[in-house]
Amino acid sequence: MFPANRSSHSFARIHRIALLALLLGAVVLCTVRNCAAQEQVPSTSQTISVDQVRPGMQGYAYTIFAGDQVEKFDLEVIGVMPNFLGPKQSIILVQLKGPKVEHTGVVAGMSGSPVYLEGKLAGALSLKLGIFTKEPIAGVTPIADVLAGGGIAGPISGSSSAGNSMQGAVSSEFASRAGVQGGAELRSIETPLVFSGFQPSAIQKFSSQLDGFGFVAAQGGTTPARPDDAKLSPGDMAGMVLVQGDVSINSACTVTAIQADRVFLCGHPFLNLGDVQMPMARSRVLTTLSSDMASTKIVNVGGPIGTITGDHLTAVTGKLGAAPAMIPMELTTKSALGEKTIHAQIVNHPKLTPLLVALTAFNGLTQNVVYGEGTTLKLNAEIRLKGHAPVEIENTFAPGDTLNPDGMPVALSVMNVFMRLFNNQFERVQVEDVSVRVESVPGRQSYSIDSAWLEKGDAAPGETLRLRVLVRPYRGAARIEQTTVKVPDQVTRGTTLRVMVSEADWMNRASRGFSGGTGQGSPVGLDPLIALINRERRNDRVYVGLFAPSPTMLWDDKELPNVPLSQINAIDGRPNPGTVQILRESLASEASIPMSGPVSGIISLNLPVR
């Protein structure tokens, strides 16, 4: 019994010794290889001011190259550039060292990486030198400026466990400063704009708008939310959610520092939007793509972790906790092949929402299996606003002969209405949701107005005349459409009326001047603007307007036809400049002929009243 028991204890002791040896060997091996998995970001509240920084100082920074592990890389201070960003806003110039950064250079998405000198937090990587430079030289935003960007001063922590909770951007200004001939200038480290569910061809169509913001478009994915998403440490990645759902668009930056539930990222602006309310999400790095032109991180977007609250010159700031509401968007495409619907949520911001709605609509339409080029597209959309009547958009778009995708006019039409709503001067728009429905009809169904004629050469007051219009379909035989024109009872005998047969745009211009709902004759409130948009004429109709030679006054959003000259003279000059417009004709009556596609052309006829 005893020998056997002693033997059992001896075996267990040997087993424990062997296991301990294996663990020690693993630790030694990891130390020799400088394993990133064992790297711990210093948990320190100490910072170093820019006036204490000297050339030649050795330091290090943290970022993620792959996976979820924060890695350390070395750097050396080259010097300080006073007043680089502006008065009393300096930049620390450093050279990155180590096999990875010397291979990749300064990587898009590395902005915000915390930089330590003498074991103290010095700032955030924010700038890079040129795009084809051989050496990885970067600019560091001093930590005092990073914290000031969020309106915060005081100690910071090394980690947080609060897991329960368009052109003109400053980035483009950076690119023009400290310019050196040959393209070697300090510019903001690019912010990856991660697209999931978007085809490159769709992104390319909006590249001019995206390029002006200083983004690097990158394709990525989305990952399910994890319980530890909000457990951030300096060197981790997070960013701004612009679109989420069946498709997504997100920015990705490195976390510089955390104070309680406040997060500081990027070290430079996203778009310099100021105080904002946008969702913040965790970003998880798959790998780092090395490129001589622009190395970038390939990332998946994780779960929401809070709200981006500030976007300023020296930092993007956020708050851990609940994320703000976004605008739900539903896009349905229907054709002979079937029907398909995608759902997305769009960030609510006047400068971003119109572009993001257009991009999401275009991608969802053109990358849909039921969509095909060379078809006529019928658009029906509704924008529901809090406290106001919904905005209705209805139009038809025929394919063209250019290489521009047929779906682009659909996206731009919706974008234009959003811009008009968000740019109104009366009150802030609160969009509750958006639904867009596009039906695809085979063939190019468009029409041109060839000619028009009345059944009689003159008419009496109160008389109704038949009007015929010759319309010619695209590559088809011309056909005759007809409607009626009623002469007003009160029209003066001997007057000559004008009958205009035209497309919607010409009728809009003739009845409201050339203001088109802006400038003179523009609405004076959000409700009048919505009413104006909803009553705008559709492009798939032939319009017939009967105009009398009496003035129409456009006063703000009101149309006052047949105004006596005495009243015009009395009012003239009294309202604010630009609020009154006088048209030489008044629209006496109007009719329309529905067509199955866009109509173009204009014909004018004279109608004497006997």
Could you provide a short overview of the structure?
Helices cover 19% and strands 41% of the residues. The chain has 610 residues and is an alpha+beta fold.
Task: Explain what you see.
The longest helix has 32 residues, at 2-33. 19% of the residues lie in helices and 41% in strands. A hairpin with a 7-residue loop joins strand 5 (120-129) and strand 6 (137-142). Helix 7 packs antiparallel against helix 8. It is built from eleven helices and 33 strands. The chain folds into three domains: 50-320, no CATH class; 327-442, no CATH class; 447-608, no CATH class. The chain has a six-stranded antiparallel beta barrel with strand order 1-2-3-6-5-4. Strands 11-13-14-17-16-15 form a six-stranded antiparallel barrel. A four-stranded mixed β-sheet has the order 25-24-23-32, with no helix packed on it. It is elongated. The chain starts with a helix and ends with a strand. By secondary structure, the chain is α+β, with helices and mostly antiparallel strands.
Which SSEs are present, and which pair or pack?
Layout: H1 2-33, E1 58-63, E2 71-86, E3 89-97, H2 99-104, E4 114-117, E5 120-129, E6 137-142, H3 143-149, H4 170-176, E7 186-188, E8 191-196, H5 200-205, H6 207-211, E9 215-219, E10 221-222, E11 237-245, E12 248-251, E13 253-259, E14 262-265, E15 274-289, E16 296-312, E17 315-320, E18 327-335, E19 338-346, H7 353-366, E20 375-385, E21 391-397, H8 408-422, E22 431-442, E23 447-454, E24 464-473, E25 479-486, E26 496-502, H9 504-512, H10 526-534, E27 541-548, E28 552-555, E29 558-561, H11 565-571, E30 580-583, E31 586-594, E32 599-600, E33 602-608
Parallel strand pairs: 8-9, 10-16, 18-22, 23-32
Antiparallel strand pairs: 1-2, 1-4, 2-3, 3-6, 4-5, 5-6, 5-7, 8-12, 11-12, 11-13, 11-15, 11-19, 13-14, 14-17, 15-16, 16-17, 18-19, 20-21, 20-22, 23-24, 24-25, 26-27, 26-33, 27-31, 28-29, 28-30
Helix pairs in contact: 7-8
